[in-house]
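Good morning,

Attaching, inline, the backbone tokens for the sequence recovery test we're adding to the shared suite. The designed sequence is right after.
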């Protein structure tokens, strides 16, 4: 049975915070640290009337309208988020409530839930929907998966430059139009405390450690995936979308993944000789010496023409959207997939039948690797994305506006939201906070 993503719709936060021109000078940072080091140019920032419910509902509504669906076509709604405001009632019920305002039907028949495991929850929700359909429990209905987050950090946190906000709605169905998902999966999972939100809105982050944990879990997931997949070879995949908290993180993950996939192959033998004096990092008794050799080897590998060409073709196109929106947590890897396929469309590459390898990750921590196969109607799905129009329509905010709007989204601050709100055709917060408004 072929099951996977039938359609996707994206809703970006309506404001734009320029990192080089606006955030860097205010934080007394060099703009290049953000644009070159992190690889980010702007954050999509949530306007005052936006939250995870409005963004998720707007993305889902767009998707349903485009595919001509009504609530009766959908048997399951899962929201993946790490920005939830309710510890009991799932965000999917709030989203369904919004959607029911515009359809004559309701979602009484639909199984609703909320998935939490930091950023990997979006992919876990896809897995749940996939399993539900493959188990034959869907009674001909599709599943709606919505990954929605306001990825905000406390003011002054090192993560401030990686903020973002947006939602990705995905329809999971049999014989999908966009991609099928592989049965094979690989996992790397461990109890980690590098990024937490224990009953607090903004995360407590050990940023440097979080980077190392990401890489360690991703390596384990790749190893686990290789134990069940027939073959993993870097040229086998047209694109490899990774979870992208910032493109600089993906630079590190891609090098690790490439090194892992070429090890003990002819490619590695060729590269090892091209690298010349740098030894392959094995055969050391001393641990420090071994780590130095690994670092030197990886640095040299990164500089090879073969790696650079592979990175440009396979990884770079996955980062186009992230550079302009920042981290969307649960939506991030799904934006990376959309970005890659949009780039293929622009380059005139026929993707039908081609493979993607998805590297999902969530702090706390878990990585998942699975493959996807692009389906023949993928062009219609990608052409229907209006992400470029949304990004172009965003309003640039000054640093002073950013400070005020960040306060509006800070649950610990008492703010009169009516002072900021403007009327809208879309789903919006009504000024009394998400719980009061929707219960
Ligand atoms: N020109 C060019 N590059 C520059 C530069 C300049 N003037 N100044 C600094 N850089 C480079 C640095 O060399 C560094 O690159 P490398 O890592 O490749 O060496 C990069 O810019 C960032 O500089 P710092 O490491 O000094 O930056 P920082 O310590 O202030 O912040 C961070 C980095 C800790 C990752 C911070 O952004 C953070 O805490 N982010 C939130 C946590 C996060 O995203 N972690 C990622 C893994 S966890 C995850 O993926 C889950 C999730 O979604 C959060």
């Amino acid at each position: 049975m072929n099951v996977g993503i039938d359609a996707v719709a994206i809703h970006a936060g309506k404001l734009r915070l320029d990192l080089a021109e606006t955030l860097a000078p205010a934080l007394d940072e060099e703009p290049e640290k953000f644009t070159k080091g992190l690889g980010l140019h702007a954050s999509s920032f949530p306007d005052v009337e936006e939250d995870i419910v409005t963004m998720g509902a707007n993305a889902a509504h767009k998707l349903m309208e485009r595919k001509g669906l009504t609530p009766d076509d959908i048997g399951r709604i899962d929201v993946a988020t790490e920005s939830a405001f309710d510890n009991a009632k799932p965000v999917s019920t709030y989203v369904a409530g919004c959607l029911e305002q515009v359809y004559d039907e309701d979602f009484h028949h639909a199984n609703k839930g909320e998935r939490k495991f930091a950023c990997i929850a979006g992919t876990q929700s896809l897995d749940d929907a996939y399993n539900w359909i493959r188990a034959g429990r869907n009674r001909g209905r599709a599943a709606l998966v919505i990954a929605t987050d306001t990825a905000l950090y406390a003011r002054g946190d090192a993560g401030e430059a990686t903020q973002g906000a947006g939602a990705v709605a995905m329809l999971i169905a049999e014989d999908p139009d966009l991609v099928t998902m592989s049965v094979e999966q690989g996992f790397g999972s461990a109890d980690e405390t590098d990024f937490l939100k224990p009953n607090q809105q903004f995360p407590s982050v050990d940023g440097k450690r979080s980077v190392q944990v990401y890489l360690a879990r991703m390596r384990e997931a790749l190893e686990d995936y290789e134990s069940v997949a027939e073959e993993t070879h870097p040229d086998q995949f047209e694109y490899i979308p990774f979870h992208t908290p910032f493109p600089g993180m993906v630079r590190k993950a891609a090098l690790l993944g490439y090194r892992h996939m070429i090890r003990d192959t002819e490619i590695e033998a060729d590269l090892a000789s091209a690298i010349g004096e740098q030894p392959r990092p094995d055969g050391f008794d001393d641990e420090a010496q071994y780590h130095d050799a690994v670092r030197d080897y990886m640095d040299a590998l990164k500089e090879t023409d073969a790696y650079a060409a592979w990175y440009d073709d396979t990884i770079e196109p996955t980062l186009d959207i992230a550079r302009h929106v920042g981290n969307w947590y649960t939506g991030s890897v799904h934006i990376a997939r959309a970005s890659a396929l949009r780039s293929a469309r622009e380059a005139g590459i026929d993707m039908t039948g081609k493979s993607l390898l998805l590297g999902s990750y969530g702090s706390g921590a878990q990585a998942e690797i699975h493959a996807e196969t692009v389906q023949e109607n993928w062009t219609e799905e990608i052409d229907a994305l209006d992400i470029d129009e949304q990004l172009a329509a965003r309003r640039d905010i000054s640093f002073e506006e950013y400070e005020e709007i960040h306060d509006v989204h800070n649950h610990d601050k008492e703010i009169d939201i009516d002072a900021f709100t403007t009327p809208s055709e879309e789903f919006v917060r009504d000024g009394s906070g998400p719980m009061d408004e929707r219960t």
